Amino acid sequence: MNILLVSIGGFFGAIARFFISTIAKEKYGDSFPYGTFFINIIGSFLLGILYGAGVAKMWLLLCGTGFMGAFTTFSTYQLEMVQFIHKREGQKALLYFVMSYVIGIASAFAGFYMGRM
Q1: Handedness of CA 100, 103, 106, 111 (dihedral sign)
Q2: Alpha carbons 33 and 50: distance in angstroms, whole number
Q3: pTM confidence score
Q4: Lowest CB count within 10 Å: 53, 56, 81, 105, which one?
Q5: Rounded CA separation 69/10 (Å)
Q6: What does the alpha-carbon distance between residue 25 and residue 32 come to, in Å, rounded to a whole number?
Q7: Where in the cell is it found (predicted)?
Q8: What is residue 61's predicted lDDT score, i.e. its pLDDT?
Q9: Domain boundaries, the chain
Q10: pLDDT by residue (tens digit) across 24-51?
Q11: For 1-117, where are the alpha helices, taking DSSP H only?
């Protein structure tokens, strides 16, 4: 049952990530990885809500491990950082790094506190 929950969540998380990434590229172009950034911030916030709300294990597997595991994308973030550095776009790399971690952690805290309400 646990594998099924993670699989279902992962299926929908991957589709949501693809959808948001595609829309972000169409709207903002590809000079900055807005899609990955938005996805990871949203994912941090939603995981914070799940944790803060103390949801049951079943929901953590479906939504946390499954959906958020496939939705958020740490490996893509790392690759985009490497690409910025390879292209010698250090300012963009630094901005992306700082924004991702500072806003990501702040979003997780905000979600956590909202989940506790």
Answers
A1: negative
A2: 26
A3: 0.86
A4: 56
A5: 7
A6: 9
A7: Cell membrane
A8: 94
A9: 2-116
A10: 999 999 899 999 999 999 999 999 999 9
A11: 2-28, 34-53, 57-59, 69-71, 74-86, 90-116
